[in-house]
C-alpha cells in the first residue's frame, strides 16, 4: 500500500520532499520551469497542512560541487512561482551542521531548498551514511520525483527507511494511477499499445510486458524496420539493428503469434535517401523500402489503419514517435497518432517516453491526453512491469 500526502498529519513536522527540479539552464536562467510548476500542488499542500517544507533535487550531472549547477536559481524561480507568498531559503549544501540549523530555524510557511544532491557522489552511490544524514533532517518523507523513481539513489530510496513516515506526492500519485492502475493493472478493453522510436533493443522488455495484456500492439518508428527485416522484407537503408536483434525481433513476432495478439507493422512508408529530408520524398505502395531509400515515417495507409485501431480503443498507451518527427516532412505519422488519441474521449490515453512526450507537447496535443508522463526513462521502466525503486520504497505493509 502507498500512502499519499493527504493521508498524513503534517502540522509542525519537518517534511522532506524529493522533487524533480532537474530543469534546463542557460547561463543564469531557467529556460523551462515546467518541472517546478508540476511540483507546486504538493509543495502548496504541505505548506497548507502546516509542514516545514524542505525540498531536495538533483540538477544536471555535476562531478562534485559545481556552482554552475547550483539550485540557487531554482530557489528564485520557485519563490516567483509561489507568488511571493512564501519565503524560499536556499541552503548551500544538502547535509551538514549548517543545513541542520537552517532546518531547525524553519518557520511554518517557509520553504528550504537544499543544494544539488549530486554535489555529493554518495547520492548516486546510495551511500548509507549519507542517506542517514538526509533522513536526520526529516520527520516525514514525501517523494514527488517520478522522473528519478527508476534510480535507487540516497534521496529516492536509501534514506526512506530511516524516516518515520513516508508518502507519495500528487505528481507521483498521478503517474502511479495512470501508468499503474489504468494501463498495466486494470485497462479497459480494447487496450491498444503503440510503440515506436529508435531501437527495438530499448523496448524489448516493454513489448514483452505489454504483449500478454493488449488487444493489439502497433509498431512504428525505426524499430519497425528491424521487425520487417526479420521477416525477410526489403528495408533499403532504413535504420535497422542487425545481428542478434533481428533474431530477437523474430522471437517477439513468434510470441505475439502464440498469444494471438496482433503485432501490427506498417504497410507503407514515407521514404527518402536522406534522413534530414534533403532530396525527393516518396510514399511506398507497400511494405518494401526501395534499396537506396530510408523509411522515415509510416505512410498514409498505415496512418489510417492505426487511427482506426486507436478510435476503437478504450485504453491507449503510446511510447516512441512513429518517424523522424524532428523533420517536418516525417512528422505526419506521429501527428496522426497524437490526433487520433486526442479525439478519443471515451478512452484513457497515456503517453510515456521522453521524445514522444516532447512531440505531443510540441504539436499541441498534450492537454487533450488523459496523462503525459513526466518521466522518460522512468515511464519506460514502469511499463516493463518491474517495480521502480523510488516507488517500492514508499510501500507500507
Ligand atoms: P522515446 O524517448 O519516446 O522513448 P525513442 O528515444 O525511442 O523515443 O526514439 C525517438 C527517436 O527515434 C527520435 O529522435 C526519432 O527521430 C527517431 N526515429 C523514429 N523513427 C525513425 C526512423 N524511421 N528513422 C530514424 N529515426 C527515427
Ligand atoms: Mg528518447
From TrEMBL:
It is found in: Cytoplasm. InterPro entries: Phosphoglycerate_kinase, Phosphoglycerate_kinase_CS, Phosphoglycerate_kinase_N, Phosphoglycerate_kinase_sf. (2R)-3-phosphoglycerate binds at residues 35, 118, 151. Substrate binds at residues 20-22, 35, 58-61, 118, 151. GO terms for molecular function: ADP binding; ATP binding; phosphoglycerate kinase activity. Pathway: Carbohydrate degradation; glycolysis; pyruvate from D-glyceraldehyde 3-phosphate: step 2/5. One of its GO terms (cellular component) is cytosol. ATP binds at residues 203, 295, 326, 353-356. It catalyses: (2R)-3-phosphoglycerate + ATP = (2R)-3-phospho-glyceroyl phosphate + ADP. GO terms for biological process: gluconeogenesis; glycolytic process. It is an enzyme of class 2 (transferase). Gene3D superfamilies: Phosphoglycerate kinase, N-terminal domain. It comes from the Bacteria. Its EC number is 2.7.2.3. It holds the Pfam family PGK. Keywords: ATP-binding, Cytoplasm, Glycolysis, Kinase, Nucleotide-binding, Transferase. Monomer. PANTHER family: PHOSPHOGLYCERATE KINASE, PHOSPHOGLYCERATE KINASE 1, CHLOROPLASTIC-RELATED. Belongs to the phosphoglycerate kinase family. HAMAP family: Phosphoglyc_kinase (MF_00145). This is Phosphoglycerate kinase. It comes from Corallococcus coralloides (strain ATCC 25202 / DSM 2259 / NBRC 100086 / M2) (Myxococcus coralloides). The lineage of its organism: Bacteria, Pseudomonadati, Myxococcota, Myxococcia, Myxococcales.
Amino acid at each position: 500500500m502507498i500512502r499519499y500526502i493527504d493521508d498524513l498529519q503534517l502540522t509542525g513536522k519537518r517534511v522532506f520532499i524529493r522533487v524533480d527540479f532537474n530543469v534546463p539552464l542557460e547561463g543564469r536562467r531557467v529556460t523551462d520551469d515546467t518541472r517546478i510548476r508540476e511540483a507546486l500542488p504538493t509543495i502548496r499542500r504541505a505548506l497548507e497542512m502546516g509542514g516545514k517544507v524542505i525540498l531536495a533535487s538533483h540538477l544536471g550531472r555535476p562531478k562534485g560541487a559545481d556552482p554552475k549547477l547550483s539550485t540557487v536559481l531554482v530557489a528564485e524561480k520557485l519563490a516567483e512561482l509561489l507568488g511571493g507568498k512564501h519565503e524560499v531559503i536556499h541552503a548551500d549544501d544538502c547535509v551538514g551542521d549548517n543545513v541542520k540549523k537552517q532546518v531547525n530555524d524553519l518557520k511554518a510557511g517557509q520553504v528550504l531548498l537544499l543544494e544539488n544532491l549530486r554535489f555529493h557522489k554518495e547520492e548516486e552511490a546510495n551511500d548509507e551514511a549519507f542517506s542517514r544524514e538526509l533522513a536526520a533532517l526529516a520527520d516525514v518523507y514525501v517523494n514527488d520525483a517520478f522522473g528519478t523513481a527508476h534510480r535507487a539513489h540516497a534521496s529516492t530510496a536509501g534514506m526512506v527507511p530511516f524516516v518515520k513516515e513516508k508518502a507519495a506526492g500528487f505528481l507521483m500519485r498521478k503517474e502511479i494511477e495512470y501508468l499503474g492502475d489504468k494501463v498495466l493493472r486494470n485497462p479497459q478493453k480494447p487496450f491498444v499499445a503503440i510503440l515506436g522510436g529508435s531501437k527495438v533493443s530499448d523496448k524489448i522488455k516493454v513489448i514483452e510486458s505489454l504483449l500478454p495484456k493488449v488487444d493489439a500492439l502497433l509498431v512504428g518508428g525505426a524499430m519497425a524496420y528491424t521487425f520487417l527485416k526479420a521477416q525477410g522484407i526489403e528495408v533499403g537503408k532504413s535504420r535497422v539493428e542487425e545481428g542478434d536483434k533481428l533474431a530477437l525481433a523474430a522471437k517477439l513476432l513468434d510470441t505475439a503469434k502464440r498469444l494471438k495478439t496482433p503485432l501490427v507493422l506498417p504497410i507503407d512508408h514515407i521514404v527518402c535517401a536522406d534522413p534530414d529530408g534533403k532530396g525527393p520524398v516518396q510514399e511506398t505502395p507497400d511494405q518494401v523500402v526501395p534499396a537506396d531509400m530510408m523509411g522515415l515515417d509510416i505512410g498514409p495507409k498505415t496512418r489510417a489503419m492505426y487511427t482506426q485501431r486507436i478510435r476503437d480503443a478504450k485504453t491507449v498507451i503510446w511510447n516512441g514517435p512513429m518517424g523522424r518527427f524532428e523533420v517536418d516532412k516525417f512528422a505526419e505519422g506521429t501527428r496522426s497518432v497524437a490526433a487520433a488519441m486526442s479525439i478519443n474521449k471515451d478512452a484513457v490515453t497515456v503517453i510515456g517516453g521522453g521524445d514522444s512526450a516532447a512531440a505531443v507537447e510540441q504539436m499541441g496535443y498534450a492537454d487533450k491526453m488523459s496523462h503525459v508522463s513526466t518521466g522518460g526513462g522512468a515511464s519506460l521502466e514502469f511499463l516493463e512491469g518491474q517495480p521502480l525503486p523510488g516507488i517500492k520504497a514508499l510501500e507500507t505493509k
